[in-house]
Amino acid sequence: MPRAALHAGVLRTAHDVRALARCGLCNGWGLRHELLSNLEPAGLVGAFHGRCVVLHLPPDAVLGLPSAERAKLRLNDTGTDLMRRLLAAAD
Ligand SMILES: [Zn+2]
Hints:
Blueprint: E1 20-22, E2 29-31, H1 50-56, H2 59-63, H3 67-70, H4 75-90
Antiparallel strand pairs: 1-2
Bound molecules: zinc ion.
């Protein structure tokens, strides 16, 4: 497993490896509950890093993702402009 692909401190116990899943876009590791899934309407089947989804889809498609998946996006995935649009769309 490429150690650099994981956040420092993500794996606290040996059991935590069970929570790992591969991103369908970059093939890197991520924690299953932090990866976006249920993106079939956007043409993505599997689990994906937020950053990879943002790089792969146009902004309007990101805004159209299911709200539970949009909620997993972090500022370092989206950048400020897209995050502002996501927050405005959430009201
Ligand atoms: Zn990825």
